Automatic annotation (TrEMBL):
Pfam families linked to this entry: Acetyltransf_3
Alphabetic keyword roster: Acyltransferase, Transferase
Single GO molecular function: acyltransferase activity, transferring groups other than amino-acyl groups
Domain N-acetyltransferase: start-end pairs: 8-168
Native source organism of the sequence: Qipengyuania atrilutea
Residues annotated as transmembrane: none
Annotated family: Belongs to the acetyltransferase family. RimJ subfamily.
Superkingdom of source: Bacteria
Name of the protein described by the UniProt record: GNAT family N-acetyltransferase
Amino acid sequence: MFYKSERLFLRPVFAEDWQAIYRGIAEEQVVRNLATAPWPYREEDAQAFVALKRDPMLPNFSVLLPGSGLIGQAGLGIEPVSGDVQIGYWIARPFWGRGFAAEAARGVIEVARSIGHRHLVASHFLDNPASGRVLEKAGFTKTGTIRPGFSLARGREDPVADYAIDLAAAHASEEDVRLTLEDYPRAA
């Protein structure tokens, strides 16, 4: 599955992506905000990641910026405690602060909706408030829950804030707005 947003192209992870993934993620500031990536992140970790068998209902994407190549990853997985479908993402540090994470997350949300998911969850470590802003820009809302979340790179649990999005409700309200705007009488 492929997705094109305004500035980004999301496509499946290819085996030859491992070097670009390694270059983008093998930095402690990136990895420490993820749940399952180890630190230090090695070339072998990137090679193992691209070799993973993918579930079509839980797609993972390489995030490409035309002219720059692979700048991150975004996709769906299963939250280990609740069993809910969760979104995850990372963007290479040179590309932080330009809205790429939120744009990629919105693309993953659209893909999730199109393949039938109705509800997604997400979380971010409290010491990474930028990720909370990304989630809110992508349409997630805070659940009000703060809980321990494990990070392999950190080697421990640290507090995370939980977020959720109801895809059916979000889609219905977008349709309602479109219908209202389209049906609104235009000035002559």
